[in-house]
Structure formats: C-alpha cells, structure tokens
Amino acid sequence: MSFRKRGDVLGAPGARRLPVGGQIPGRSLGPQRTPVTSNDAQLADRVGKLSMRDVSNSKTTGQIDSAHPGIRPSPATSQPSTATGCQDLDKLLGHMGLPLGQTLLVQEQSATDFASVLVKNFAAQGIVHNRKGGPSSLAAGNTHLVVLTMNPFFAKELPGVYQGSKKEAKRFKVSSAESEVTVQNMLESGAAVSKPSAAPGKDLKIAWRYGLKDNLQKGALARNGDVELETYPEYSHTFDITSRLVPAPTSAEITLISPVQPLSAVLTQLQAVFQKHQKKLIRILLPQFLHPVMYPPKYSKLAELLPLLHGIRSVVKQNAGRAVLLASISSDLYAHNGNQVLTMIENLFDSVIDLEPFPQEMSQFLERVYKSQPNKIQHGLVHVLKLPLLSDRGEMHVQRSEYAFKNGRKKFEIEAWGIPVDDSEVQDSKNMAEKPTEDHNHTKVALEF
Amino acid sequence: MSAVQKQELSLFSDHSVLTKALFQQNEHHVIYVTHKLGTSPSWLMNALIETQVFGSPLSLNESHASAVNHASSRVPVQRSGFSSNGRRKAATIASWIHDSEFFHTALGKLKIDPASYQIQDYLTDFVLKNHGKPASRVLKSLVEELTSTQSQSDLLLLEQPELLMHLLNVSSDELHLDFINPLARAVPLMVIVSYTESHENPGAEALEHLAHDLIEQIRFQTGCVFKSIAVLGIKPLATGRAKDVTGTLTITRGGAETSHLAIDIAENEYLFHTQKDTTKLFYR
Amino acid sequence: MASSSHNPSILLRRVLALKENSPFILVIDSIGRSGHCVLDEVAREAEESTTIIYVSFETVRKPKYATHFVGGCKSATRLLTAIQSSLPSPEQSKFSASKYLVVIDCVNFIAASSVVELITQLASPSVTLLAIYHKDLPEYRLPELENYPSSLQLLRFMAPSILEVRPFTNDLAAEQDLESRLQKLEMPLGLNSSIYKLILTNRRKSGRALTYTFKCDSQVHSFVPIQDVRTTSDGQEDSEMFEGLTTFNLNTSHKQKAAKDQVDLPFLEAQSFNTGGAIVYEFEKDDDYDEEDPYEDPF
C-alpha cells in the first residue's frame, strides 16, 4: 500500500497519514473511506456488531472521495461525521462532528447573535476542507456549501483560519517556507515517505497550530487529542472571527439559494446542487431561519414553514451519505403559544441545541468573579435538546444548563457549567455580616438562575 | 444496574404484547403511542414490529451482543393464510419523519428480514410530489396506497401522521375523517405514533384563547386517544436526565370500548433504559 | 314523575332506558373516562325493539348493539340525509310504536353553527338523540361567530338530560392532579376503568335542573348515588373542632343549624359575591348626595 502511495504528493492527506500510525489499514483507511469488502469483517468486529445495513451504508458515502479530509468516523457510532468548525461543538454532539445525513438546529434566545459564529465557522470549515485538496482540486473540490439565505454577502463574511497572534504568524510564515523546501528535497531523494522523520516538516503546519510543535519533535504523542490530530490532521480548524477568509469563496464553492421562493423552486434548486456537485460533501446552511427581516409573515404559519423544512429534510436524507445541515433560529420570537412553532421545528431536526445568553446581572456577576481572568467569563448557557443519531434511537439527551459557552476571537468554546464562587462574597460574609449589601441580592438572583 | 429486576413488556392481561384476539376476522383496533422530547419511540416501534415477526419482542431486555447472537436462531412466526407463498408481511410502516433507510437500519440490527415488513417512505420527496395539490385527493391516494399494501399485513404503523395537517394544510377533523378512519377500518391493528411535546390543553371550557394550530394539534391527538384501545406514553423522568434511566413507559386504556375483547389492557408503568440500540424495562 | 325525581337512582335508570321524556341526551366525557360506558348502559337498559343508529366519527368497529352504522362526515346536511334514510318518515312514526335511538359518538365534529339545526331535525318523540361531547377538545371559533355560544354551551342549553362522566377520584387534590396531567397528555394509570363518576343533570319541563352524582360500576351495572360529601363532612368537623376546646358548649344541634340556615340575612345580593365582603348601596331619593364632597362617596 505504501508503494502505491509513494507517488502521491506529500501534501495529500492520505499520504501523510501513512507514516504515522502503525496499524494503518484499520485506522486511516476506515471502512467509510474505502469500502473494500475484505474490510467489512474487520469493521464489524471493531465497531461492535454493526448491522449489515450499516455496512451497506458506506456504499452511499462512497460517493465521496474516501480520503476526504473533513470526514472521520464517529467514536460513538462509527458513522462518518464532518467537523462543524467548532471543536467544542463537535465534542458536544457526541460524534466529534456532525454525522453525515444529520441535521442540527441551533436555537438562540434573546436578540444576540452568537449562533452566527457557529454558522460562519461551519461555512468556513467547509471551504477550508474544499481547499485542502490542493490548488488543482480547487475547481473540482471535495466540498460544496449551500446557503439558504437572502444575504448576498454571506460568502464575504466568513472568518479565516486562525493564524495565531501576530508574532506567531510571522514565525509561521518562515517555518512553513522552510518546511516546503525540506519536503521537496525529500521527494527528490525518493526515500522520503518511509521515513517517519520526513513527515514532521509538513506536519508543522497543523501541529504547530495546536501548540504541538514541541511535542512532535520529542515524539511524545501520548495525549488522545494529539493522536486524533495525527489521524485526521485537516479535519477541524480554528477560525479567527476578526479575520476574513481570503480569497472569498466563489460560486464554484458556494451556492446561495433564497428560501423565500415557491417551495418547489427552493427544493429543485437544492437538488440541482447535488446533481451538479457529484461526489462532494454538501454542507447546507439555513441561517437565521424565520428572521422577520428575511421571511415574510406568512412563513410563521405551520402550513408554510413545515413543508419547507420537511422538503429540505427530505433532500438531506436522500443524500444521507454526503449532506449535512445546520440551521439557526432566534427562538424568542416564536416562544409564545406554548412553544408550538418551535417544537414543531425541533421535531424536524435530528439534533437541537439551545443557546441562552446570560442576562445582565449574571454577566456582571461573572465579570466580578473573574476580575483577574477575563478570558474565563462565559457568555451564556448551552442547552442540549437532541443529539444526532443518539436521540433518534431513543436515548435521552436533554441536558439543560449543563454547559456554558464563551465566544472569543479564535474560538467558540463550550464547557461544563458551574457557578463560580464569588470570593468577594465570601469575604463579605466573613467581615461584615451586619450589612447585607445589594451585591448579596444580586448573587442570589444569579444563583437561582 | 444488574441488580435491577428486569420486566417483560406486556400490553394485555394475557401477558402478551399484541394479543391474538386483536387479529380476529373483522376486528379493527387502534393503539396510540405518544412521546416527548428526549424519548424517541423508535425502540418501541421496533419492539412492536418484532412482536409481529417473531411472536414476542425478543431483543428487549437483552444486551446487544446476546441479542445479535440469538438473532440467528430466531424463527419468524408463521402467518396464517399467506404464509405459504411468503407474501404476507408482518407489518407496514408509514413515516412522515424518517426515511426508509432509518427503519431498514434499525430493523436490520434486530435481524428482521426486510421481506417481512414494508415501508412507505413519506419523508422523501413527499412535499415535492404533493405540495399544492388538493389535500382531499392526496389523502385519498395515500389511503389507497396504504390499504392496498395493507391487505398483506396485519399491523400498520403510522409515525407522526399529524404532520399531514401542516404539509397538506388540512384540519384535524378532515385528517381524522378522510385518513385515519378509513385506514383504521381497513386494518386489523393500527398504531399511531405522535409527538406530544407541546400538548397543553386547557380544555373546551377554558376561556383561554388558543392559537389555531394548537387547537388543531390538540384535537388530533385527543381524537387519537379516544379512538384507541390503549395509549402507550413514553416520556423522560420529571427530574431530567439520569444515568441509568431514560424515561417511563405508561400503558393505559384509551377511550375506545374494549368490552368486546375477552382480554383487558394490562395497565402498568415501566421504567426503561435505552443505550446503544438496546432497551431494558424494569419495575418502578 | 314526581316520585322518580326524589329517588335519583330510579331517575337515572329511566333516563338510561329512554323512558324519561327527553328526546336529546347529552353525554359529556373526557379522555379520563370516555362516554362509551354510558352507551353500553343505554343499549342494555333500552327496550329490545329499539332501533339504534350509530353515527361514527371516531369509533372504528361497529358495536354489537348498533342496528345501523353510519360513517360521519364533515357536512351537516349530508350527515342528516344519511341518518334520516334509516329513520321513519314523520307520518310513519306517528303510527309505529317502536323507538329509535340515534347515537353520535363525537358531536365535536359538528360545528357550533350547525349543531342546533341537527338536533332539532333529528330529535322527536319517537327518536331519541344521544350525543357524546368530548370536553377536552378545544374548538376553533370563526371570527364572524365570535359572539355565538360555543358548542358546549349550546348543547348544554338544548339538552333535557345531561350525563357527565368523569374518572372516579377520591378527593379534590387527586382530581386536580389528574387534570393537570391530562392537560399535557400524560396519561396516569387507572383511567377508563369500570368504576367512574356520573353526574346526571335532568331538566324538568319548567326548565329547573336537578343534579345528582353517582358512583357507577360498569361491570355489575350499579349506580350508587353519592351524597354531597362536603356538607356531611363539614358537620362532623364542626363538632370535632370544638371538642375539648373549652368548657362551654360551642356545638350547634341539627335543629339549631336548620334554624340558622333559614334566617334571611339582609342584602342577599352581597352574600352571593364570591370575593369576601362588598358594599351594596342603593340610592334613595332622600339621600343627600354631594358630588363635590370627596368624603361622602358611598361607593
């Protein structure tokens, strides 16, 4: 196998993976990547009695290039999954990504727009995957983005890959130039690939990005995350929301469809994308669904919006091997009447998370508590309502107020939520018990929340 | 976990899941399954189909591995009448929320032969095919489609037919009269599965003003309760997520008269735990 | 008639046997206890010769007692012709002695605007109409009929006999708990059981209504009147409450109680208010009312 790969460009992900792991076939050439029959038995073993049906599933995913950089098997179900562009969200979903053929709805309470960060990262991640195939594949590509929006500038607003702080960025430029030289040399010498030491040069690009540079050189790859990085180096990226993706995606990479058209027009256009971009992963985005600026009032009728979602769901499921969908909605607008509209919408999605930004008092409380560590301040709660695949087969995954999110320049982080201890409060109660300050009241409100 | 007493699922007082009395000549019954956010009913639907195929829900309460091991030794129950030519199906599933692949995968894991059931996939392209057409005609053709395939099986599972109200823009009454009723009268046993998360009914005597959509939804779902001989409700624990319990399954009598049946509904409340494609039931 | 009104059980049996002079019987039920149990009782009590026309909006299988089984439809006029084809013409009915019973298993399907017409067309001395109304089905009201009464109000108004079935609960708390669960369609155990509560409201010719509550068992077909629990228990509580409290006798004898109840207090109107006390003031011609004086405002 390594012989066959030797001719490949060193930058191609498949080639890079080879020198790393010892147990190559099982790992990097997972069943979803190469549906070779002999692999099936192995797979069934490893995955733990998957059904015949599951294996045959890989037939449909086979449409995609088996070495797609943005696809890896889910550790939970071994279903092929793709990165959402936010590592913590990938983790939260339980599959290290969004499994193909699944749909995700991000609800957001109040008028904030944190969900747009997830949406943009999701979009940018698709474009970055697409460009990882090398310049030659830019036209052909491995991923296509469909955005159901009326915002014509969507493509221009995508964030670029995080380059580190300015100083680091400069150093990176130098080192990448160096590494390119090394790689070329090695290719010429012809003995490059079999030597493990050849890889690090190219590895730097990514490994460095995650602060792995030193580890790599020491050969210490013990941490699990590192191993995953090794196996799926181009799987997930970090995006800097203050930068822009350059060059902005073109019509070869992104298709914008207005959702406010006759239903059949929307659906046929959507299907046409799948026709046109065979063998590509199609990432569908439905940002700011039912936003009153974009959607006329009649879309609030269930008889109007459910057929649309049902139709989109149908298209995703039809192409379950190579489609994912991410939608976002401002839930406050539709929270009346016993949440009927929202419940019906949630019902048509495989997975749903709900962002609840903190109210003012809570933010103030956190700011006070984390006075010295401003980067620890969370911005809101993440409620999990449904998880892809797992909820559908009957598992209970409703987790309210168990996670919190914080949005930074380079990362949208989701972490376990716990109410921090207010040191000043502790002192207060020690020193002056006689004077119940207003702060006390504040804290209590916050705690209840 | 292992110390917990497992419990067999039974819906009827003769300890069966689907009693034979339901499948007598000219008998028609409806069973209603309700579920809420966090507790998808797929395991229960699978168990019902499995019961039709093998005579009992074999995979319930088993660990996944042993379920698969036993699967090879499972022998489908001989169906009366058509069994010789093998054309009689154990069940027909019509779903408006899942495609056929979903069921093939789930039932395949239970080693149920795809030839023993039939799936009507009303998710794929349903809107594209039917949007804008007169609702009464669509409903009529759906009934024809389902009754024609239905003539070959005893159990018809409808998953979320309430979506039809919005997909075709029909009222609950129309859906009941033109779709549910004719189907129920054509099939020995029909199981309707509904998502009742947003059900909040103040009752007809309440003066609260309800949204039209909510009225229609409540009318449909309440109507289903009145039609059915048994209601199987699954919901998560009121206390939220737990490590070893997914939720509760409550079996109650429905509104339909059962005095003609010699067998009563076995009312019961189970706790259940679903994990990795296996579901275990145990005592509360 | 006079004697039956004093014995609730006999009155109920007469209603169920269709012997009471009421051409329209309304059965109100809920998902907690469906009204089919009443249909069974009626079919059992009624004379053998009664022709039962069963109009089904939701019943899947034809009940044994039904002579004709008519499928329900949305249009009231079509429904009417379908039913009337099984009924005798008015001339015939004058001469025939046999009784007819039309059962509508879910009258909710008929819109409020046409329900009155349906009742008046069907109900007659020889034809009894029995309709089940599910009180948990909310009703959509057309904006143009905003002021028109709801179906339930209309039916209650029209029906000489109303039978309301409820699941049997021991106390008020259990009842409220049950209701709050049913609102969310979370069905508790023990619904639709053979033991249920039946509230009979029977109107006399004058329109005065008598209400009785029964505890019923559909397996042995027994109907036991339930005394008004509140008054009896109240009396007991009173006497217990004062026991050992003081050396005085604070208890009231039954005779005293009866006398107390008969005292007419002034301003009966005020006593009917639900919220505590209120001032009832009637302006008399001699009253000196000064609009300028803020302190004199009697209201």
TrEMBL record, chain A:
PANTHER family: ELONGATOR COMPLEX PROTEIN 4, PAX6 NEIGHBOR PROTEIN PAXNEB. Gene3D superfamilies: P-loop containing nucleotide triphosphate hydrolases. The keyword Cytoplasm applies. This is Elongator complex protein 4. The lineage of its organism: Eukaryota, Fungi, Dikarya, Ascomycota, Saccharomycotina. Residues 54-64 have a biased composition (Polar residues). It is found in: Cytoplasm; Nucleus. Its main location: cytoplasm. Pathway: tRNA modification; 5-methoxycarbonylmethyl-2-thiouridine-tRNA biosynthesis. It comes from Lachancea meyersii CBS 8951.
Automatic annotation (TrEMBL), chain B:
Signal peptide: none annotated. It comes from Lachancea meyersii CBS 8951. CDD domains: Elp6. InterPro entries: ELP6, P-loop_NTPase. GO terms for biological process: tRNA wobble uridine modification. GO terms for cellular component: elongator holoenzyme complex. This is LAME_0H00716g1_1. Belongs to the ELP6 family. Pathway: tRNA modification; 5-methoxycarbonylmethyl-2-thiouridine-tRNA biosynthesis.
TrEMBL record, chain C:
Keywords: Cytoplasm, Nucleus, tRNA processing. One of its GO terms (cellular component) is elongator holoenzyme complex. Pathway: tRNA modification; 5-methoxycarbonylmethyl-2-thiouridine-tRNA biosynthesis. Belongs to the ELP5 family. The keyword Amino-acid biosynthesis does not apply. Pfam families: Elong_Iki1. This is Elongator complex protein 5. Its main location: cytoplasm. It is found in: Cytoplasm; Nucleus. One of its GO terms (molecular function) is tRNA binding. The keyword Magnesium does not apply. One of its GO terms (biological process) is tRNA wobble uridine modification. It comes from Lachancea meyersii CBS 8951. The lineage of its organism: Eukaryota, Fungi, Dikarya, Ascomycota, Saccharomycotina.
